[in-house]
Design brief:
homodimer, alpha/beta, Aldehyde Dehydrogenase, Chain A, domain 1, Aldehyde Dehydrogenase, Chain A, domain 2, 2 domains, seven-stranded parallel β-sheet, four-stranded antiparallel β-sheet
């Protein structure tokens, strides 16, 4: 295990020095290899599904596990698109003359090696591996055992693709046992970032068991606040979309906050509409009095249902809504519907979530929708990268300083002076 | 303790919404208050020093603890300068039309609350508090007990200054007991970043005992490599400066790597010069044979002397130097002296340290020297902020999305399409 991780690390050092074109060609070679072996990959996936059906895996996991020809084609298309996104490496973020003849640059460079632990979805291997290579990072991946046949053949195929490119196949590695994934968490010196994609429990377990930085979101408790100055027909379609378009997603809303002045009118049309979509509403006392049959308890405000369930609360003021959000939000994405610009501005500047939205659905919180091409996940951490993390989030920077024999004592003595003059980027 | 941290958090939410001018004025008010009370602050420091002398604190710690009128004036001047640095908040990093009428922005915002644990130097309170307020962050500070009188009066004075500004004095708080600083590490929900300034042991202890992200550097094992194509007189002055200008600094070099072709000539003039500066050289076999009297052992390559001691190794090629650096460097700052541009380029792109330097001293790795005005420390982590961390490193960003009733299902159905058109920043 250590040996394999060491190989990934060593290959990643070469990868970091590859050109944009080399990484681009590598992605195209990976896509070609996947296309060539698509029949075998789909066949391996059928095996995984049959085995999982036999062990009684539930239907929603089976559907995540499934990789049919169409889904695979879509994933391959994603790799090609990523190849043509602009290079996140070698960008100059700062360019400054520190003193006569002494020049500072801040340049984007890869993180190094990513450790990615994910569940079910085997297309994640394709997406993550291609994001890693495009951004100049090595990657060690550990998928769920239910997808083991699919993951294995995909990884072999991706490495085959790399063989016909100028990038080392060893920049990618697949772990297969739980023991190996525990060992991964201890590879401080070799792995630079752990990305868990899975349940809250998985994320917390990883955070508590590694000194390597972890990128991830724990919960997705998103709010929609409908202000007294909202266009109520907009509000309703946004509420329905934010809850029902894909309720298992982390960017779906779990709580609806209603300003008391519009609560009655809004619920009159909203209750039947939610019913039509099969959404179970749980209300606080006030919204219960306005027709919501089920009651919400304290626990509900901090529950991520990931299902067609929505808690509803009536608030007196914008400040009450902000207080509720600051208390219960998981700082993923929170939205307001209002036609009052001052109210919107206050909401956008007060809510400290990675996404704060005005008059649109929370479901837009996504790397593809933001135009990042793909994402490794959505970070609800405070420090960058925050929100949907694509290529740009997988790089760091390095300071380059070039002099002509410059030494610090000349500046300490006052013999020379700093100029600190910014130059064009 | 929790109550006080909660107050800092609450005040920091208001601070995050303050204007550039309000934060600027607050810093000037803090500087004025310090100037008014300067005599009392210096007097409190004398008390701390007398107490520490009585308990037998060593001389280098006493000199770090000392805050005389001149040092204090310098620190106050630093606060005023920081007031006039440009605002790191509210910067638009991304501006994109996602679809007709749907606009995405990425805007810089404060991190929230900083927890800073530092040793000895009481001027750190002034520097950190002013960096925090300028960047819109609350701060909870814990200084060393040897500086307790000085730290207390400085904090009271800073808060007095804030009272006459529009920023809440509660955005700053000083902890005084070890128990409180342990409690600080457990304030996951209230504190967003821990910044330890002190020994390696302190940093490691903190990393192992908190789930809050930690900004810091563990070791400063910096290298200087003198290539066969180096200007040897430049090389020598850079080597002397990098080692002797302030040997206790983390950006001083600990190991000198010499290309075998120039090793003999270089050492002939370097050995007496280092001797003049009182530097003890420890050599590998080859450099020992070239006149270095003391021998380096395996342990030396990973030792941060923080003293006038330097280990020396002769290497056969640039690749050998790179291998040594990649193995032993703490990824702080590593430098090359060469007149061969291809060699320099290879070094700058292969060494993955936060600073990679060509033909200049490693001592330039510093926030002031980079033109950042001030720094909370130097990060040797891979993820940003990396290197010297000033105002810019104390902010994060948030995504703002503004629509006109946009919902995701219209895009999923193909009824509407993403445009992903970048707009001027």
């Amino acid at each position: 295990m250590f040996q394999r991780a060491f190989l990934v690390r060593r290959s990643s050092i070469d990868l970091a020095q590859s050109s944009d074109t080399q990484r681009q060609s590598a992605l195209l070679a990976m896509a070609d290899a996947l296309a060539t072996r698509s029949r075998e990959i789909v066949q391996a996936n059928v095996e995984d599904i049959n085995r999982s059906l036999a062990t009684g895996l539930n239907q929603s996991l089976i559907s995540r596990l499934k990789l049919d020809e169409q889904k695979l084609e879509c994933a391959i298309e994603g790799v090609r698109k990523l190849a043509y996104l602009s290079d996140p490496l070698g960008r100059r973020l700062l360019h400054r003359e520190l003193a006569d003849g002494l020049f500072l640059e801040r340049i984007t460079v890869p993180l190094g090696v990513l450790g990615v632990i994910f569940e079910s979805r085997p297309d994640a291997v394709i997406q993550i591996a291609s994001l890693a290579i495009r951004s100049g990072n090595g990657a060690i991946l550990k998928g769920g055992s239910e997808a083991s046949c699919t993951n294995k053949i995909i990884m072999t195929t991706l490495q085959e693709g790399l063989t016909s490119s100028e990038i080392e196949p060893n920049t990618l590695s697949l772990l297969t046992t739980r023991q190996e994934s525990l060992a991964l968490l201890r590879l401080d010196g070799l792995v630079n970032l752990i990305i868990p994609r899975g349940s809250n429990e998985l994320v917390r377990f990883i955070q508590d068991n590694t000194r390597i930085p972890v990128l991830g979101h724990a919960d997705g408790i998103c709010h929609l606040y409908i202000d007294s100055a909202a266009d109520l027909s907009h509000a309703l379609r946004i509420a329905i979309d934010s809850k029902t378009q894909y309720p298992a997603a982390c960017n779906a809303i779990e709580t609806l906050l209603l300003h008391h002045e519009i609560a009655e009118t809004f619920l009159m049309s909203a209750i039947p509409e939610f019913q039509k979509y099969g959404v179970k509403l749980l209300g606080d006392d006030k919204s219960h009095a306005l027709g919501i049959t089920h009651c919400a308890n304290e626990q509900d405000w901090s529950t991520e249902y990931l299902d067609l369930v929505l808690s509803v609360k009536v608030v007196q003021t914008l400040d009450d809504a902000l207080k509720h959000i600051n208390c219960y939000s998981s700082r993923h994405t929170d939205a307001i519907v209002t036609n009052d610009n001052a109210t919107a501005q206050k909401f956008l500047s007060s809510v400290d979530s990675s996404g704060v939205y005005h008059n649109c659905s929370t479901r837009f919180a996504d790397g593809f929708r933001y135009g990042f091409g793909a994402e490794v996940g959505i970070s609800t951490q405070t420090l960058p990268p925050r929100g949907p993390v694509g290529l740009e989030g997988l790089v760091t920077y390095r300071y380059l300083l070039r002099g002509q024999g410059h030494i610090s004592s000349e500046f300490a003595s006052g013999e020379k002076n700093f100029t600190h003059r910014d130059l064009p980027l």
